[in-house]
Amino acid sequence: MATVSSTRTSWSIPRVIAAAAAGTVIEWYDFYIFGSLASIIAPIFYPPGNPTAQLLATLATFATGFIVRPFGAAVFGRIGDLVGRKYAFLVTLLIMGTATTAIGLVPPYSVIGIWAPIILVTLRLLQGLALGGEYGGAAIYVAEHVPDNRRGFYTSFIQITATGGFFLSLLVILAVRLILGEEAFQAWAWRIPFLLSIVLVGVSLWIRITLRESPLFSRLKEKGKASQAPIKESLGDPRNLRLMLLALFGATAGQGVVWYTGQFYAQSFLINTLKVPFLTVTIVMAVALALATPFFVVFGALSDRIGRKWIMMAGNLLGALTYIPLYSLMTANRENPVMLTLLVFIQVLYVTMVYGPIAAFLVEFFPARIRYTSLSLPYHIGNGVFGGLVPFVATWISAATGHQYAGLYYPIGVAALTFVIGSVYLRETARTSIWEEVGGAQEAAGE
Fold this sequence. Notes:
Strand content: under 5%
CATH architecture: Up-down Bundle
CATH class: Mainly Alpha
CATH topology: Growth Hormone, Chain: A
CATH superfamily: MFS general substrate transporter like domains
Distance between the termini: 20 Å
Number of helices: 22
Order of helices and strands: HHHHHHHHHHHHHHHHHHHHHH
């Protein structure tokens, strides 16, 4: 591997990470405001009546944004493999910011009737399409700039962005509620976090425009090795299709359910099942996320030293074995915010184990010429479908059975399946050099 200037590298890699991460944080912020405000939005955009039906309808709308993410992965993955990583994630950022801001402007059901949920679902679909292209671009862009032996460490900063965006959404919501008061927030001020998106996206877009294309992708284009039909190559080649299925069932499906159980379902369970006050839940979630977030980097860096596979498998296994005991303890301690924070922190710690190393793993798992498409599809099916359905499916199962813990069997089953398949069939990727595909010599990052 070629030696690069330490001064230039130390300056440029943080810049690359900051620019990629800034936009991704904003996209996750945009995407998760809706989930954080589901219980408030439900009676505003859906017909009056059964509160449980309203909540399920809102969660279903939330889930549509996840279900459509694989389509966004295919569309923008193709663009990223044909045109470039940078162009793809500039477009996704613009679409996400526009859709999120528009949600803050949609009139309520009492004003425009059935058009309110129709418009809301449409905007959620646009958000899902945008996010389907964003994550893969950001993760690959960073991975294709950094040294092979520190890829887990550097890409773990992109992994922080999902929790960071969720954390930012909670902080903004909390600030608006405290400043304007609960009555104003319920009536109209819930729109402010959505409207703020246009400012955040504008700043992030300006930062990203200053970046150059990934050096590895640029060299791939120069050598004439870039794919001309990335979707066909990804899905039509049996060897690569097998890799995608392994990545889905042996890594991303379990990672997805662990992520959304530990963060979104935990929040929903506290608010809707245990009836813990919204403000208390927001503080509990924010503190737990803040305490756990550094562990994304810890496990990302650790994966460079001991490998990625078994850290991810351990997170899946721990989730499958302990979710019911953890949620039983949450029920027993529903009036103890400190204990609730600890119990949510444990769940988010599992998230950091499955999620911290996975960007580096997926980048190393697929060839550069179809990396954006091949990585994005299993990632967004695992997270968008398996993971994104956790709040809705778990809530529905619990409501249908009358057992408040029955919904947990869905994420437990998926996490256990991933642990078995991943343990048996996944190969370790931590010693992979992604530069060999374009000649073996790494270029310096940055401008």
